[in-house]
Amino acid sequence: MSVTFKTDLALFFGTIIATAMVLGANVSAAEIMAAIARAFS
Q1: Both ends of the chain: CA-CA distance in Å?
Q2: How far is CA 3 from CA 10, 12, 16, 17, 28, in A?
Q3: Helix (H) or strand (E) holding 2
Q4: What pTM was estimated for this model as a whole?
């Protein structure tokens, strides 16, 4: 994997986590992983 890809991936995960925190939603780790899986499928 290229450095750019890793950076994009880090930003992607960071955005998901930040969004969940800002919303204050009770999002379980399983739901987050499922959303990530759908995003990459």
Answers
A1: 18
A2: 11, 14, 20, 21, 29
A3: none
A4: 0.42
For 14-38, b/e burial (b = at least 16 CB within 10 A) is eeeeeebeeeeeeeeeeeeeeeeee
Query: SS3 string of 11-37?
Result: HHHHHHHHHHHHHCCCCCHHHHHHHHH
| 3-25 tens-digit pLDDT | 788 888 888 888 888 887 777 66
Tokens encoding 26:
């009770």
Domain ranges of the chain: 3-40
**Best CA proximity match to 13, nearest among 1, 41, 35:** 35
